[in-house]
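Narrative of activities, Objective 1.

The group set out to show that a structural description can be obtained from nothing but a protein's sequence at a throughput compatible with the screening campaign. Below is one input-output pair from the validation batch, recorded exactly as produced.
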Amino acid sequence: MVGMSLVVWWPAFTVGVWGEIFYTQILALWAASTAAFVFVLVERRPVGVRLLRAFLLLLPTALIILMFVINDEEEDIFILLIDVAALLAVLIGLPFTLWVLVRIVWPDFAHEMSAGTKWLITVVVLGVAVVAFVLGLLHPYFLNCEDFTIAGNLPPDGCTPMPEE
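Output recorded for this entry:
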């Protein structure tokens, strides 16, 4: 639960602050999903189940491929559809990749844990993501522009300048 919360907070916060998921987060998702993809292909399960899971784990790879194809200067319905597909790849790929990685690292998660405990973990992780997103939206109230600069990030629009002494 703690590890999953650590994974989801930063992407949720960046969407709240800057309105987008950074490329580093997309590439981290791609790396994790690719490793999980290889694991799923060699695990001992029926082929149909493995292929469906493997296909879903390839969604971040599809997003990376789309990033090569998309020309940011064009504005038409095709580009909009590609952007929607990219967003879906992240929205489906991130939770599914987390789920598969949890099952790999913690195989007893699905079998030796009550449904209530699974729901509790899910609600806590989703809660952290939602709170991180809201904190990102509210950044001007508790962070200033210097906080972003010191952390190596571009100060977002609407950030609060540091008070002069």
